[in-house]
Amino acid sequence: METWSVRFAPDGTRVVAGGAYGNVQVFDLQGQRSGTARGGALAYNVGSVVLPIMAGVTGAAAMWMRRRPDAGPDSGPSRALALTPDGRRVATGLGAKVLLRATEEEDARPTKFAVDRHDVTALAFCRNDLLAAASHHTVGLWSLDRPTRLRTLDHEDAVYALAVTRDATRLATAGHSYIRVWDVDTGEPKLSIDHHPMVFAADFSPDGTRLVTGALDHSARVWDTTTGACLTRLELPDRVRGVAYGPDGDTLAIAAGHTVTLLNLATRRTVLEVDGDFGDVSLLQIALSPDGSHLATVGGGMAWLIPVPKKAP
Questions:
Q1: Spatial contact of 302 and 14, defined as CB atoms under 8 Å apart
Q2: Rounded to an integer, what is the distance from CA 278 to the centroid of its chain?
Q3: How many CB atoms lie within 10 A of CB 266?
Q4: Where are the domains of the chain?
Q5: Are 81 and 123 in contact (CB under 8 A)?
Q6: What is the pLDDT of residues 262-296, one digit of tens each?
Q7: Which pTM does this prediction carry?
Q8: For 8-63, what is each residue's pLDDT tens digit?
Q9: Fold of 3-307
Q10: Element (H or E) spanning 309, and its range?
Q11: Which of 37, 67, 84, 235 would staple 89 via disulfide (CB 3.0–4.6 Å)?
C-alpha cells in the first residue's frame, strides 16, 4: 500500500506517516519493530532504521494505526498529512474530506468534514487552524472548533504544496504554474513567482526569509521571500518530491527519485547522500526532525528513518 506523507512530532520523539485510505501510523524515534509484519517485510537496511508502513505492523513500534475503512465515496489515496503545533492531533486528506484524530488515542473516532468538491492535495496547520489545499485552485483556512471555513485563498491554479513560516504569519502555496506567498492574517498575496513546470514541495527557512521548492524539472530552488529572486538552483537526478529545511537554516534535505540528499547551503557541501539503497522505490516526501538529528522519507509502502551525521567539533 502506498505511503505518501511523513512528519516529525514537534517534540522530535515520534514519526507520523500516512498513506492510502487515510491510514496513519505513529512510531517512536527508535523505530524498533517489536511485532510481526503482515503483508510486508523488511528487505534491507541503509545504515538506518527501516520502518514498515501500512503493512499491518503490530507491537510497540506502531503506537497506533487506523484500519482501512469500508469502500465507499471517501475511499482513495490520502496524499496529505499535517500535525497540530502541539502534536496532539493529526489531519489527513481523504478524497475531498479531512480526517482529524487524536494521536494518543488508538480507538478514538476521527472527526470527518468536507473541505472542497475536489481532492485534498496538501494540509498544514497555522496556529490552531487548518489550511487545506484542493486539486483545482483554492486553499481554505478552517477553524477546527466547529469546523468552519474562515477564509478562502484563490491560487488560480492547482495547489500541490503548502508551507507556513515558523511564526505563522505567512503562507506559501505552490502548484502547476505559480508560487505565492500570503499574509495569513489578512489573506492578501504578498508575492507571486512564475514557476514552470509544476512544484511538488515547499518549505520556509526557520527565519522565513527564504523558501525552498522542489519541482518536476529535477530542480530545487531557494527563493528570497521578499523580492522573489531565485537565490540558488540545485539540479537533482530526478523530479524533486520532498524538500525540508533544517533548524540551522543552512541544512537542506531533498528527496528526488531514489535518492536522499542532505546539503549545507552555506558551504555547498553534501553532508549525506543515500542513493540506490531504496530499491526501485520513488521517494515522495522528506522531513527533518526539529533538532536536525534525523531525517525521514517515505515511498512504496515504506518509511526510512536516517540519522544525520554529527558536525565535527
A1: no
A2: 19
A3: 10
A4: 3-307
A5: yes
A6: 999 999 899 999 886 787 889 999 999 999 999 99
A7: 0.85
A8: 999 998 888 887 666 777 777 765 432 222 222 222 233 345 554 433 222 222 22
A9: Methylamine Dehydrogenase; Chain H (2.130.10)
A10: none
A11: 84
